[in-house]
Input
Amino acid sequence: MFDLDEYRTGPFILDANRLPGSPRFMAPEEWNKGAIIDQVTNVFTLGRTAAEFLGTGATSVDAWMGTDRMRLVTLKATSENRSARHRSVREFVEDWKSVD
Output
């Protein structure tokens, strides 16, 4: 997922104070000049998109309309800690597809 105005062919270092976009879909690193923007950032955006569709923007048990396993995959994808997220979009998709 990307913004056509900000499309890059691969990972890059953020050279502005933040990327443009909707804050509710933005990973924490998108707000930090000098941060690495890569697939892990895209995983966060995919997770936030899932949260919008299945949890009306929230991942709490009460708000969630998907399965609990979907919620857990989404929580991993949207972790504030980059190192706790899926390492790639492919890894996120494989985890999502494994949901029963």
Observations:
- The beta strands are 12-13, 36-37.
